[in-house]
Every structure is written in C-alpha cells, then in structure tokens.
Design brief:
Length: 1000
Amino acid sequence: MRYEFVPSCQPHPARKTPDKARCVDAPTLIVVALVVVGFIFFANVWTDVLWYQQLGYFEVFLTENLARISIFAIGFLIMFAAVFYAIRIAYHARPVYAPDSEIRDNLNRYQAQLEPVRRVVMIGLPVLFGLFAGSAASSQWQKVMLFFNQESFGQNDPEFGLDIGFYLMTLPFLGFVTGFLISVAIVAGIAGILTHYLYGSIRIMERGIFTSRAAQIHLAVTGASFLILLGINFWLDRYSALQNSGGRWAGALYTDVNAVIPTKAILAVAAALVAILFIVAAVIGKWRLPVIGTAMLVITSILAGGVYPWVIQQFQVRPSEQTLERKYIERNIGMTRAAYGLDQVKVERYNATTTTTAGALAPDAQTTANIRLLDPNLISDAFSQLEQFRPYYQFPKALNVDRYMVDGKMQDTVIAVRELNPDGLSADQQSWLNRHIVYTHGYGVVAAKGNKFTVDGKPEFLQSGIPSTGVLGNDTTYEPRIYFGEDSPEYSIVGAPEGAPHREQDRPASKEGGETQYTFTGNGGPNVGSFFNKVLYSIKFQSSDLLLSDGVNDASQIMYERNPRERVQKVAPYLTVDGNAYPAVVDGRVKWIVDGYTTSQYYPYSQQEQLSDATTDSQTTAGRNVALPNSSVNYIRNSVKATVDAYDGSVTLYAWDDQDPLLKAWQKVFPSTLKPYSEMSAAVMSHVRYPEDLFKVQRELLGRYHVTDPVSFYKNDDAWSVPNDPTVSEEVKQPPFYMSLQMPDQKAPAFQLTSSYIPQVVNNNARNVLYGFLAADSDAGSKKGVKADSYGQLRLLQVPPEAQVPGPGQAQNKFNSDPTVSQALNLLRQGASDVLNGNLLTLPAGRGMLYIQPVYLKSTGETSYPTLQRVLVAFGDKIGFAPTLDEALNQLFGGRSGATAGDSDNNGQTPAPPSGGGATPAPAADAKVALKAALDEANAAIKAGQEALAKGDFAAYGEQQKKLSAALKKALDAEARIGSTGTASSPTSPSATPTPTPSS
C-alpha cells in the first residue's frame, strides 16, 4: 500500500479546495504565541503590582520601573537613531553609476539578494541594536537616580579637592554615559562603513581604497565624534585614578599622580585636536593630517599611557618606594578607615597576664554572671526535640542570640521561632490543599537563658510550650502565629468571609493530641478571590488547583515572598541586606529585625573588599547563615534597620544612619518609604544590635588598618588575621559572637559583638597567639526614638606580642591534648555517644584573656539531642574542666575565681545522661569524672587555705574550709556511686591526688 504526505493547507489531489478545518495559518500561530507570552508577562507584572500595593510600597515599584523604562527608551532611541541614520545616510550616498568589474558584479549580487528585505533590515537592525543598548542602559538605573538626586559628603578628596559625592554619584554616571556613547559611535560607525562598502561608496582597488565624497564626510564625522568621546573618557580617567585598586594600595599613588594623571590630560587634549583634524579633512577633502594625527595619538597613548608610567615606577619609585609612596599610603589609610567606619575605633593597649590568681575575676563579676553557655548552633536539635511537638513544625539550624529584661536584669537569650515545615507532613498528607490552604503558619517563640541550663544539661527555657507561655508573654499578650519566616512555604492562601468555618491548622490543643483551627484576620497579601486574580496567580505559580479549588473564596489572600530578608530587599532594592535576620517579641508581635547597608565601590583611596570573602565563616559554610553576594565595595554603612511582622508580613524601614549621604539621596528617590528612627518604639530599640556582616567586613579591614603609621603599614610588620574556627575541621574563619561583657573602659557590661585576632596567616602558617580583641557595642538603649550614644562603638584591645597570650587555636589544642580532659571525655563517649565542642568564646577578664567552651553530649539515637555536660575554661597555660562554669572557673583560679557564674545553682548536682534513642553512658563514667573534679576542688581549697593561713587571713581561711567540706561531700557522693556500680578505681590514683581529710 502506498501512502502520500499532503500538507494540511494544500488541496488534496482528489479535492479542488484545501481542508479548512485542518488548515492552520502560520501568522495566526505566531499571533497566538505572542498573545500567550504577552499574557504570561502581564500576569507576572500585574501580580507584582498587587504585591507592592498591598504592602504599601507601590512607590518603589513605580519609581524603579519608570526609571528603568525611561532609561531603556533613551538608550534604545539613541542607539536606534545612530545606527538607522548611519545606514540611511550611507545608502542614500551610494553612487548611481559604477565601473563594471568583477568586484562590482559580486556586490550587485549581494545587493540583489538584499533588496527584497532591505527595508526590513534597515529598520530591524537598528531595532535589534537598540534593544540590546536599552537593556544594558536600564540596568544602570541606580547610577542615574543617584546622579539626579545626589547629596554632598561635606568632605573633599586629597588630590583634586572635589567632594566625595562627586566620586560616588557623579563620576559613575558620567562614566556610564561616556561608555554608552562610545559604544553607540562604534556600532553606528561599523554599520555605516559596511553599508558604504556594500553599495560601492567604499571600494578596495588595486591602487588602494576608493571612497566617495559622501563616504568621506560620513567617516570624518563618525571619527570626530568617537575621538571627542574618547577625549572625555581620558579626562574622566584622571579622576578614576583615585579609585584604582590595581596597585599594592588603593588610590592614586606616586606614579599615578605624577605620570598617569598628567598624561591622561595630554591624551584628552590630543584626542580633541585629532577630532578637529577630522572635521577639517571632511571640509577640504585632505586626509593626510587626520591620518597622521591618529597615528600620533596611538603612539602617544602607548608611550605616555603605558611606557612612561612604567619607567617612572621601575626607575624612580621602586628604588625609593617607602619614601615616595608615604603620602599616598597615608591617604589610603585615612580614606579606607573613613569609608568603613573604622576612624572612630577606640584602641587600648591591653597588658594581658597569663597567670591565674585566686579572686582574679572579682572585678568582672557582672561579666562572669552573664557568660553564655548555650551554643545557638548546636542546640537547635534540643529545641526541636523538646519544643517542636509536631512534625510539621521546625526550628532553624542556627538559633539567634538576643537579650531580654528578666526579673529586672538583662538576660542574654537564645531565641527562635517555631516555623512551619510542610515537608514534615506524611506522604498521604502531601496534597495541594494541605500544603497551601490548611498548613499555613508556624506557632510561637521559644527562648532559653544563655548562661544557665538545667541539671540534666537541657536549656532553661524562658518562653516555651503550646500554647506559648513564659516571661516574654502568652497568647493574650502577643500574637504567636508565624506566617512570615525564613523557612515559610512558597505561598499560602488564607482568609475567609466572616462566619465561614476555619480551614487553617492552627496549633496542637495539647501536647498529647487534638488540634485547633484558625482563620487569618490580618492584611497579609493581595486578594485572590476574583476570577481574574485567580487566573493571574495560577499562571504565576503554575497551578491549576489554585484556579479550581473551593478553598479559594472571595475573601482569600495569597501570601508569598515570605522570607524577611527577601521582602526587605524587594521594597528597598538599593540596599545590601545582612545575611542574618533575627526574631524579637516587641509591641505584642513577633518582628523580624533586618539590617540593610548602603554600599559603593567608588570611594576614592579606599581599599576594595569582596563581600562574599569577608563574610564567609564556619557559619556560612555550614549553611546556617547566608553570605553576602560576590561583589566588591569600598564604602559601607548600616543605614537602614527594618522590621518585618511575622504575622502579616508588613515591612517598616527606619533610616538608622540618617547622616549617610547615600541614604539621603535614596530618600529623595523614594521619599515616603523610610521612617526616621525617632519613630522606632522603645521595644524595637531595645532589640537592635550591631549587624554581623558589617562587623565581619570591618574586622577584616581592621586586621591591616589598625596600623596608622605609613612606614609600619608599608612594611606590613603588624598585620593580623581572623583565626580559623578551631571547633571545625575545615580551615574557615571563626564567626563573631554576641555576648554581654564589660570592656576595660566600660563601667558596666553591655551586649557586644566580639572577635579576636592572631598574627597574619601566610601560606596557612599561623602563629596562634592572641594579638587583638575587637568588640562592637550592640546596645542601642531602650527609649523610644533615642539611640544610645555608645551604640556602634568599636573597641580594640591590642595585646603586646611579648605577652604570649594563647590564641583560640592554642586554647582548643590545650583542651584536646590535656590527659585529664581526654580521659573524662572518653568516658563520656562510652555508650555510643558523641562529644560535641561548643563555640569557643574569648573575653577579657581577670586582667587577661579567658576562654570558655561548653561541651555537649549527644547519643546516636534518631531522637537524641545535645545536652550540656561539661564546661572547659582556659587562662594562659592553665585549664579548668567541670560540670558547671562556676566550678570550672574556681578550678582555674586556685579554688576561688572571685565571681559567680550564671550556672552556680547547679554546683554539686550530677547531670543526668542525655535523652535520646541511643545508648547512654555508664553511670560510673560520670561518677568518675565527678570524683576527679571534686578532688581537684578539694586540693585547690587546701592550697588556698594554707596561703590564707600564712597571711593571717582567717576569714579567707574559713571560706576555704567551707569549700573544702563541700568538695569532700561531692567526692564521697561520687565514690558511693562508683561503688554501687561495681567500679573499683577512680580516674586518678591516690598517689597522684591524695584525698584530704577534714582535719587538714
């Protein structure tokens, strides 16, 4: 049998007319496709309009997109007009007659092929180039907006005496315009030359190149335009030299000032003169002068722009670099410190001791009482096991550190919100209705004391449970429902008419069973009740269920873009947003607090810093925090504090650094989006803290720029590095830590963000001794609209190298290599349990540097979680190791530290083994450790008592006798527990640690 293919729109041999039912017109398909694509584009744009309108930031959407459209249109029109008229002029200037030749015959063939589509090409090609140019131009909308709304810095650069604002807001715009116009001139020139060649105005002949008079004029005007723009670019390069980051130090150095900048001016004048020669050549028809001028310009640019500066650098600067570059290094130091906010750092020499003495912590009693023991990066599992209650809830990998007023005292707190986890639903619950209409929100805040734990090593909660209860409030005093968070679902549909049955899963009615239902009552998202809006959002989220489900009603709202950081980024596109948003219970709501930065890479003489490199540490590599984008900056300010309501997603932006000129410029662009910080409530103000990413960038720069002497800076003989995190196996920086502490020049402890320094690491060869300690005051006060004067103050303690204070790496090595500690930890590991080292905290105390590290134990069962079992402390070459920080400090400081730690109530109590599905350590192992610790305390009390007796201090002697009795009681209790398990020996032999008697 023979088959024959017949096109659907062609008549069949047996028929006289085509089958209209099967005939599909190609233009119709194109129109349909364009309509579909256009409607999808419209759906995405209009849903953005609805989102911004609902949130109250439609001004941002309108202003940004009008700016983009306007700049696109201008860029498109300039490129279109230039290319169009270049082609048109060249076409109309074509010669009417041309001599016959083989070349001409070939051109005739090309022209014949082009002629049917010539009009399309003459329009289409300029349109195509215009679209590319418009798109490139619109991406620079921020430079354009800053130029037209610029603000003065009130500070001049040291070379040209121009305001710093010129370099950040004017020069980038001028550079963008010049570069764009140069591109236009090049593209239009090439288009014109090709058209002239195609139609015979330019011909390659045996005797040379023939050009018609019209082509000569066209080329002369194009060349002159290009050279004028090139001259302007050379002139602007003089100022751009101050932003140079290619040398050893940023900014214009000796060679730049004395060779590059003058030659750029010469080249600018030379380019203008050659442009004039091109115009003259167009008039007189003589091309010798512009050709010679162009050749001279090229030679001059090579000699003056490259060879001459190289000669100056190699033969004048290099032999006397330290002397000649001193002034410019000084500029670099001063401008870099100003650009990064390092010029106000308080530097103090800290003559740290490494010798422990009894009572040394007495002056630091308040700091010691607040030392944080709970590691927010390890206890997430503990929060989950103790406070999750349902598989559809979750806690983040890393919790946050904040502070709250508890019983009249400021309490460091580890806090997290119980967010929704739709992936925790069972397989038979994974329906569209459940994921987007039923399970819509998390519930409640969970918080624990940072400096205390229960006897069995669990967090001591300040806020917990379902319903939410604790010192932070309950269901009647704050709204616990979490609709907007860092792990919220992509979108949820909430709301219903009054009187309609509840459809949202709210919270468990109790820990044992039962559930409650709820209906969202706020204004949390655009309305999706109308059929038109349902169609739009069905397209946006590619879901037919959204269009057809009966769970979507007239009062329904759709919540999306729910991550607090992403919401702030969308309503303030000019900001770089900090990688860590944190929750706080304020004003009866749960608010996410987000820090935003204004940045620039154009600050003169300031050192460039890669944000992603500076903010990467063990937290970001583990996925607990977000590193900043891979962009370079040399100016940064924490200009905005933002809050995002966890219930309805409302965003409030506060102008925190209202003196920042960049922020002032953006306030002129978006005048109604920012509130002054004077409107910030007292509750929000009390939870503002110094942002982590800004601190990371500053500490990275301060490693070199703590040196202000240009000679020392040139030698680089006092550069520091941020130490690697000794608690992880990878070579990655240690993160900064929030804690309450009192710096030497402070009268009371304050909430601070801290980090330490060691000598500069070269080729992974680090000498891990402490050289510096940096702290940023994070206490903004607790008065409405009043920022504490001390907030943001950076304090740097410089430790003399001769002090030989161990760095974090050395402290960790001492912990790991100490035989007593190793033996005790090995005993704890019995029973298939893991020992986890918590964050290694560093703080100035006892006139030296004190290291504290909590030690957690976690069994290997699926439902296990870490419990705090021991605390390691180090000071100088000595270490302490005990079930509580209070005991460990007493061990470290000769039996009497002079201060009381926050966990002192747990002294003498034996922590229980950790909970979980795995095996637990043998009771004897824990008892052996307790016995060893008790004997150490007893020995320390004996020594301290003898010293007091020798001095005739009977009061101190009596106090040591009390400690001795308490230690003996603990030793006897531990020995009894060892005997009850049939274990015959203690961790230490009697000869090594003799057991004291009461009579001693």
